[in-house]
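Components:
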Amino acid sequence: MRVMVVRCPDWDETEPFEPVVVAVEAHAAGVEILRPGLLAFAAGGPAAYHGGEQAVAERVIDEVAESCGVECGVGVADSLFAAYLAAHRGTVVPEGGTSDYLRDLDVSALGRPELTSVLRRLGIHTLGAFAALPAASVADRFGADAAFARRLAAGEDPRPPVPRTAPPDLTVTVDCDPPLERVDVAAFTARALAVQSHRLLAAHGLACSRLLVSATTGGGAEVSRVWRHDGALTADGVADRVRWQLDGWLTGGLTDGTGIVRLSLAPDGLLPQGEAQPGLWGGDGSAEARAARALVRVQGLLGAEGVVTAVPDGGRAAAERFTLVPWGEPREPGARHGRPWPGALPGPGPTLWSEPPAPVSVRDAAGDPVEVTGRYLVSAPPATVQWGRNPPVGVAEWAGPWPVSERWWRDDARRYARIQVRLVDDRAVLLFVENGRWYLEGSYD
Amino acid sequence: MAGSSVLRSPVAAMLRPASELAGPPGLPVHRDLADLLPWPRLRPGTIIGVTSRAPAGLTSVVLALLTEASQAGAWCALVGAREVSPHAAAHVGVALSRLALVPDPGDRDDQVTGALLEGLDVVAVRTGRPVSRRTAARLAGKARNRGGVLVPFGPAATDWPDADARLDVIGARWYGLDTGRGLLRHCRLTVAATVHGRRREATVWPYGRPAAAERTAPVISLFNRRDVKGGDPGAGHGRTVSRLG
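Structure:
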């Protein structure tokens, strides 16, 4: 996604940033404040409206200079991190050119002095060289934060902002009576509210990477702002952002002297606390955080695909009912989950599936292969099952055949039938027959 | 500070802080398995080896061990079991959102298991080859230090050094089929537990017990008796016979 970053160099954090945000909002929607002096928005919409990213950049620079008397730099790239670096030089990095742009930059651009000095000692001086290291080795050697930094260096957009809408009950609100009018009182309120929000999220095992600060003025006007952070926000981080925002509103004359009567914080961009990337809330020793560290470490050993979690999906065959996604990705149910699947067997599924299905031979009492007709009738009851080099095993009980007809309207249509069999040695298996051949789909171990 | 904070949603009142999940020490365990273990819960820092002498039942017992713990919010992992079906795990009652699968650790299985024990609550590992005494001691130490439960299962788990308990499936029987009719629904496992040299047996129904009407199906399978008295089918005269020692 194309991201535009606006950076006001040497911004004093005590200075309200609000006027600049208002100026930029004249030309772009969905502005997110990264920290005072720095904001970002998706470049796609404004560029289409104003006729190009360059045009948007010029308008933003002019507007900020005119209405705030401040100079700013604008950068555009495919990732937030690259756009941030580009904003230092006022560069528009062409689409698809982000990794080329990052390749020759110095590793100090990552803003992680400790990591930088380690990398330099290893002879790695550029972001390109760092990005070329295997992701698994970086995570293993240097930990999750370095793995995150490597993704930044490679021009990937970091995973954390998985935008999910905050459930309303995670919003914390404070009614201010008398109304908030002074910045020092506001700072105190901000702190208390941040701690409350932090506790509520932590109690649900969540962390947030984005924060919506909303206020109601004494005059009844409602205002809100989004603050974003790459990674999970700490309680202190939340408090700072609320304070900066209140500062901006109060000194900017927003309230017309009526003050702020209600203030609320809505966490957004929720991450399961354990999966949050660098900077967990307080870095505590909670079970989630411990589990996440252990799993990230194993992903460092085996690669991200080495640790997976099963997410329900729809399907008739046992293997189709779940998809495996790398641990840490969102557990969104598959598109086919929850739809009816005629032909899917109720009851316990096979505990072990055979992948790929192993060919078996199913014979009747006379020793002839069992066939299933086009109308799903068996030629004779199955008496023995044999697979691999094992001797045939007798059938104790069986049930079926259950017909399955998949995608009959398409070229890759499949038509097969399944039977459940309990063998005389007490094993139970699920077999299917397709095009006259029998296969083992799974066994009930 | 002026004013008061308000949480308006009724949902908020129903949510409990995670800290309240901490009850008595240990993790809850499937009720049929609780009969077998000397402790009614999975005790932190222990090793429970699971093996099967019956032709079936190993996977079901391992999954059953994870059910209650995962539902209570414990973090579980299943290592080296690529062929185990998540669908079946869900059916037994494992909370899949709490289950990490490491399907293919390759020859790094010891290293992976050690790393997982640093942070997870229950780690089940399929063991294909015998583990060295040194590795076993290292893993046991990690489990004890971090309060994890290690569950080695499969053929090599028989000789796992320092296991606190060993569960051995000695009989397995599926119910529900008939000639051409029915559906597999219930599985009755006979599981023998050895804890500090003492042995006891219990019946485990990983997929729930059948209703009374269904139980009229034949319950005694001669093949359940196979392992008793030297693998002689028919020995045991239809009663459960414990092997002594």
